[in-house]
Amino acid sequence: MSADTLTADSRPASVPAGTGSLKRFARRRSTIAFLMTLPLLLVIVCLVAYPASYGIYLSTLNRTMERSIGFGNFEILFDTDTFWNVVWQSCIFAITAVIAKALIGFWLAHMLHHIPTKGQRKWRGMLLVPWVIPPALSTLGWWWMYDPSYSSINYLISLVGAPPVPWLGEPLWARAAIIIVNVWVGAPFFMIMYLAALKSVPEQLYEAAAIDGASSFQRLRYVTVPMMANIISITVLFSLIVTFANYDIVRVLTNGGPRDLTHVFASYAFQVGILSGNIPRGAAVSLFMLPILAICAFFVLRGVTRRNKEQM
Amino acid sequence: MAGNRISRRNTLRSGAGVIAAGVLSAPMVHAQGTGGSLRCGFWDHWVPVGNDVIRRLCAEWGQRNRVEVQVDFITSVGNQNLLTIAAQAQSRSGHDILSFPTWEPSAHARLLEPVDDVVGRLVAKYGAINPIGEYLAKREGAWRAIPAVSGSQHKPSLGRFDLLKQHAGIDVQAMYPAANQLGPGVDQWNWDNFLIAAEKCAQAQVPFGLPMGSFTDAVDWVGALFRSYGANMVDERGTVTVRSNPAVRQALEYAVRLCRFMPNDIYAWDDASNNRALISGRSALIFNPPSTWAVAKRDAPQVAEKCWTFPMPAGPAGRFTPYLPYFWGIWSFSRAKPAAKGLLEFLSEREQAEAQTTTSSGYDIPPFGTMSDFKIWETEGPPTGVVYNYPLKPHHNAQQNIAFAPAPAEIAVQAYSQAINTKMIARVAQGGQTVDQALTWAERELRNFARG
């Protein structure tokens, strides 16, 4: 007997028919479930669906926001050299930074995992510092170190007789400088996620592998990585989204320069939308991230689902 | 007489009617007496006391007119003021009066209350407003904002007179003394001789510190350089003239030559880098307001006492000084427009304008040419008269300029914010492109700004 039936039977005989059906409706599991998820739905509608829809609507307007031009803003962007530079640079920036963060985070997690528990907490706390400092603040510190004229890094380099590096003045160095800061900020996140995953790998698997004569690399390749695959995928996806949408590092360090060669989607969208007074085109720039990230998310999540099915 | 009976329902109905009529007819009757309240969002001045004088003047006007004036100061650091303007324009709510940076009045012209009446009265008293102020604030024949005193700045030459004399043989104090007269050598103060001086100072390890990035200091001085060559990149009608105007190529080639005598990191400089170059004693000349000198006075007095402000070099089409004005505007959705107009008129009057300029150590430039004689510009120092030539004076034979004028503002703002002029130069000077490639790139970018 279902709960719905039970609640229907408990209706007092004196209650009018209309009131009874309302009560019955209110006591249904589906109604209660809906009511309990309503706050979350409201939050999603207000903070995700509405801004996203409004962004899409904005991207279809003309510069003065008085009339719709359909996909006109996208057409104009596709015809702009700078925009294609931004697409290319965003991909280079995000992919390079995420790979570097994943590798460094993986290495750090392994190092930490093998430290005795007593000392581990101290190291874990220290290594998390770059991640917990507000990026705008820490990036300012990096900017002082990279400063075009008074770089402290260049001072250290000069002590060994090497020539100064134009950290923010030359496109190649500027791109590298931005990626370095992003990796410095983001690697601890990978480290903590991987460390949690490492701790959940059953010790018996390593013991079995050792009995079978597996080398360290083979244990890593055939035990650790497969057991961590889902966490690695989800962490990479999450970081890819955040790195693609990064704004503050580029804004503080280079403002997109030199010659627009370090702009990423967010910094270019701000320049086009807010600074240049063309909000619809700025919205179009930022919306361009959506299909790229959606494709990434699709493949990563499909991989996770497949692996889960295989393990079941 | 049932119809005349005073019933409870009739009494309530009449009472509600009276209250509604009162509220609708007198929305301003609240707060401090009869004047209502006024919410103002002014620019958060670099000079801390610059805020104090605005606060004092607003309080003074509020008391006199029985209006409660609430004053907020919105910083331009991190473009906070631009974000505030965009948010208020989208939500149609916020302050009554806002300070609008250079290009914002034209961007939000539809949402700004016309202020022709206020400007008309001010012009009748003090003479014409400068043409750049008019270009930026007038839309479809109506003034949408009033060129403000607080925050408006020039960016003329600010040089080390000792280094310029020693290495380049130029006596800038003699050329432009702290008096309404010109000295010897002014006719030679042009871009060609500037290039020679730049080379000599670079050889002496005190190169000119002229940024070539995407920040306003860079865009402004390059804008003035291009204008002095007659190198308009877009004309008044919005036609892109990058390739059809030979002066653009001429100015570009000149700028590329000049870049050879600059520090090699100018492409990454922001608005503070040139200040630091001068204050640290590493540079002989920058283009900047006297805020650099003011910081030097505090941090490096031995540098400050050797600084001198003087106009930019002249080109074939004349002498132009970068001008970056602020504007005071009233939102069309404001419920206190008459009071807002009254306050802005008060703040623009000579006495109040002088108070603002004096408090900011001469930094603030009023929009009226007749106000270029404030005492502070004569007395400020050391050296006394260092900022005498900071405002444009008739004997300078110079004009104010904003980069990308006279292009329609909606195109010019995009070109300005995206620093098309400095990037075009950097593409050749740093990126190794040919002049033709850089011109083609600039032409295409500018054409796309005009679309949509």
Largest interface (CB within 8 Å) is between: A-B, 36 and 41 residues
Order of helices and strands of chain A: HHHHHHHHHHHHHHH
Fourth-tier CATH superfamily name of the largest domain in chain B: Periplasmic binding protein-like II
Helix-strand category of chain B: alpha+beta
CATH structural architecture of the largest domain in chain B: 3-Layer(aba) Sandwich
CATH structural class of the largest domain in chain A: Mainly Alpha
User: What portion of the residues of chain B fall into strands of 2 or more residues?
Assistant: 5-15%
Using the coordinates shown, work out and report the CATH topology of the largest domain in chain A: MetI-like fold
Envelope shape of chain B: globular
Number of helices of chain A: 15
What does this 3D model show about the protein?
The complex is a heterodimer of chains A (312) and B (452). With 312 residues, chain A is an all-alpha fold. Chain A has 2 domains: 45 residues, no CATH class; 233 residues, MetI-like fold (Orthogonal Bundle), CATH 1.10.3720. Helix content of chain A is 77%, strand content 0%. The radius of gyration of chain A is 26 Å and the shape is flat. With 452 residues, chain B is an alpha+beta fold. Chain B folds into 2 domains: 166 residues, Periplasmic binding protein-like II (D-Maltodextrin-Binding Protein, domain 2); 239 residues, D-Maltodextrin-Binding Protein, domain 2 (3-Layer(aba) Sandwich), CATH 3.40.190.10. In chain B, 45% of the residues lie in helices and 12% in strands. Chain B has 20 helices and 14 strands. Chain B has a 5-stranded mixed beta sheet with strand order 2-1-3-13-6, sandwiched between helices. In chain B, strands 7, 11, 12 and 14 form a 4-stranded mixed beta sheet that branches. In chain B, α11 crosses α19. The longest helix of chain B is centred in the first third of the chain and has 18 residues. About 3% of the residues of chain B have low confidence. The chains are: A mainly alpha (312), B alpha+beta (452). At the A-B interface, α4, α13 and α14 of A face α3, α12, α18, α19 and α20 of B.
